[in-house]
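User: I'll paste a sequence; please echo it back and then give the predicted structure.

Assistant: Echoing your sequence first, then the prediction.
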Amino acid sequence: MSGKIEQRLRELRISLPAAQQPRVAKIKGAKISGSTLYVSGMIPQWEGELSFVGEIGREFTVAEGQQAARLCALNVLAQAQLALGGDLDRVQHIVRVGGFVNCLPEVVEVGAVVNGASELFIEIFGDAGQHARTAVGAMSMPLGVAVEIEAIMEIAPQ
């Protein structure tokens, strides 16, 4: 990785985990179609080690859910980096983010949880990180994690 995004990550003291292969599904972590990069839903893990297993409102607070969403977003960027041959400078815009929150029915702050991912993208990419978004509460998540984040990005050609 080189360029302005690498520099920005250093300034922010943010490291990206290594991109992990999906654990259960027979899917790709990311797929490029034309000038669009689709990144599959990423769960909160670091170098393959799961964290934030449980529900928002039971095991975790909304603030902890934001941390989980941020970790998911780092994994989204790791997948993007892999798909783009290491060059995150090719990301022109984060177009859309989808966030899924494993929470108790009475937890209505799912949007606040997903802000953990949204704010990270804006922190790193500035205006290009602003995006459309969906935040949904869920009764069950892959491997029991608290949050899953996916993204669609507009990319520059190689």
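The beta strands are 30-33, 36-42, 45-46, 49-50, 91-102, 132-138, 147-155. The chain is about 30% helix and 25% strand.
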